[in-house]
Design goal:
Blueprint (H helix, E strand, L loop, with lengths): L1 H25 L3 E7 L5 H14 L4 E7 L4 H7 L5 E5 L8 H9 L8 E5 L16 E7 L6 H4 L1 H6 L2 E5 L11 H11 L4 E4 L8 H12 L8
Parallel strand pairs: 1-4, 1-5, 2-3, 2-4, 5-6, 6-7
Amino acid sequence: MEVKVYANVMKANDRIADQIRTLLDKYNIFAINFISSPGSGKTTLLESLIPHFISQNIRPAVLEGDLATSVDAERIKKLDIPVHQINTGSGCHLDANMIFHPIQDLPLDTIDLLLIENVGNLVCPTGFYLGENMKIAMVSVTEGDDKVLKYPLIFHVSEALILNKIDLIPYTNFNKDKFYQYCAQVNPKVKIFEINAVKGDGVNALVEWILERMKRTEPMRN
């Protein structure tokens, strides 16, 4: 019975997600679903990325997912772009139904790129398609070099993996060689970016890669 209920939930989610993808395709909007543990630096990363996109004449918007508060949305709002905060309460992920109406409330005809910051969690968000073109996973060196092995599914389905807070490696026991070895085991095709989101180190390479990826318009379902 539980299997049937789960299948029905996922089927309903995917149906709404397909509607979202159709809507985004209508306005030629590329969507990225960012997934990571709490505290890895997703919001700081967006704060670094957004000015670069704007300088390239790419018009971004953001959906912020969190259990509570509008703190992250207020940070993004200072960049003068469209942003909506979605609070899930006790929910550990965003699903398509949660973002369906907030997306429609965005000025879609003025947006080229939709950045979705999912709720901090490496497990629950993985299986929920939101109509995005791709998923990007993110970890920080303070979380350990074996995160990829412990939570393999999200890294397997992501097109890119961001390793954040690389400036802190000297102050941790993070082993970069092992990290890359584990990544190769889980997803040898994943593109890895080493960054320091606070200072912006490595962000340019990530922006250029995303811009290149945006040229491919077919949505990617995982």
